[in-house]
Amino acid sequence: MKIALISDLHANREAFSAVLEHAQNAQVDDYALLGDFVGYGGDPSWVVDRVRELVAQGAVAVMGNHDLATVKGQAPSMREEAREAVAWTHGQLRPDQLEFLAQLPLSVTQQDRLFVHANAFAPGGWEYIQGRLEAMRSLQATECRYTFCGHMHEPMLYHLSGTGKAGEFTPAAGTAIPLLPNRQWLAIPGSCGQPRDGNPAACYAIFDSERSELAFQRVPYDIESAAARIRAAGLPERLAQRLSEGQ
């Protein structure tokens, strides 16, 4: 089975549409949507409805911190531009859309796979996996062989051997990576709606459970239209500018 791993959509309709088309062309069988469906971008209603449709068809979806903030209220730790976007987003969503976000789980376990937005050790604390130490902590908190998470807007892959040795590397797009059976793996597919690794193309990954392979993907999309939606909404200009910068 091929599973498309998509995270941090951030209300970017153009990026999400391009990724879904790319995934369909790659003949994926299912989707795992790793949170932060809203925030920053200019089309939260469309994105939430599309996520709901995929969930109704069997996709996994977990809650992100921007989803929670949109429902419950802005977190004090959020930057001002993020707080502005959260407040605006709340006013754009219908009650049923807000209820959908509110009912999302923090994590989902399926067989030997864990899907979560931030990490496995404290999903609701929203701590980032910024390097090997946090990745080890997350992997040691679960017995699952594979952990798939978002939150960090840069694609990364970590592994932990049975002897406790950890490794990490930045994956190249389009190359299938064999996930060796004697290790645990933690994969961050990167952000679909707001990449921050200097490459503005949308990120996602495809996990092939039969082959035990993971392929990270980059998908160009209509950045100008996505930025125009942000400006039309009256959101901070920086949120529009950073799309073309991949920052």
UniProtKB/TrEMBL annotation:
For the Calcineurin-like phosphoesterase domain, which residue ranges apply?
A: 1-210
| Pfam families tied to this protein | Metallophos_2
Q: Entry's InterPro entries?
A: Ap4A_hydrolase, Calcineurin-like_PHP_lpxH, Metallo-depent_PP-like, Pesterase_MJ0912
Molecular function terms from GO? phosphatase activity
GO cellular component labels: cytoplasm
Question: Could you say which protein family the record assigns here?
Answer: Belongs to the metallophosphoesterase superfamily. YfcE family.
Name assigned to this protein? Diadenosine tetraphosphatase ApaH/serine/threonine PP2A family protein phosphatase
UniProt organism field = Roseateles oligotrophus
